[in-house]
Structure prediction request, 346 residues.
Amino acid sequence: MAKKIDYKFCFGPWNISEGQDPYGPTTRPAQTFDWKLAQLKKHGFEAMMFHDDDAVPDIDSKSEQQIRKEAKELKKRLDGLGIVAEMVAPRLWFAPQTIDGAYTSNSKKDRQYAIDRSLRCIDIANILDTDLIVLWLAREGSYLRESKDAGRALDYLVEALDKMLAHDKRARLCIEPKPNEPMDHAYVPTIGHAVAVSSLTRDPKRVGVLIESAHAILAGLDPADEIDFAMKFGKLWSLHLNDQNGLKYDQDRPFGNVSLRSAFDQIRALERNGYGRNGEYVCFDVHPFRTTKPEHWMDHLLNSRRTFELLVKKVRSFDEKAAAKLVADRNYQALDQMVLEHLLGK
Prediction:
């Protein structure tokens, strides 16, 4: 029997947000980056996710030499705290050059900006000693179908990926799909699309995927199925666990907040596919409720981890042999009740 996995956990500085939404201001005072690092270490998380401008603030205003210097200073701080950098991602959806898209912009100059910034992101990742580059293709889509050619946009995207792969033979590119928001429609909305895109690149073995629970739900898909699919191709290299209340805006609710059964199924898929055996992290991309008081600021992350750990116990104590007998008998009604009662502690 395979050895049970001891999971490692991480989050990003953006997961300790101040409560601002499109209709109202912040509800909590801003905290420093150092405070967030300290919270991560204090509460027993092993790694932190970074955007390139989390690692090097105001990155577009700095020279390559300055960027490298600040990244080295951050690496020294992380080493001192015993914190690992899980990944680095270029934040390409804030810049004025990406209004019409980043890698798929109709402007050649703006596409080049996106590629150049991504190459700097890879350099930062190298300094922070991670080979994982996460690409959330936030603005790779269109608001108006007639404004872009989706086939040409795919060519642009593959061209950008190839330049990143050529820039560093160690880097692994991890595509994080989402079907919509901020774009009306995205060009790479699902894990299946991302896996297909990887096959068109110069080195498909170095292009994988990151699954976010809420993004799968927004696409009308089951996150557990997406996990099984990605791991069948050996391409699930990172994970953003959270929850989502219907087909709305991306909510980043605590893991298991809406559907414990879906959370159970996701962990069951991770367990049967051996996620974590190659050092992969379980990342929580969750946000505190707007109503959260500052003294409860970390609860959404701590609760997500606790829910995950409790559900791991539920998955490992689930009677798989009894379930298999019900499946063989096609007694899915009994299987359904068996799962419900197991989750209810019966």
About this structure: Residues 9-319 form a domain with the TIM Barrel fold (CATH 3.20.20.150). Residues 108-127 form the longest helix (20 residues). Strands lie at 9-11, 47-51, 84-89, 132-136, 141-142, 172-176, 185-186, 207-212, 236-241, 282-284.
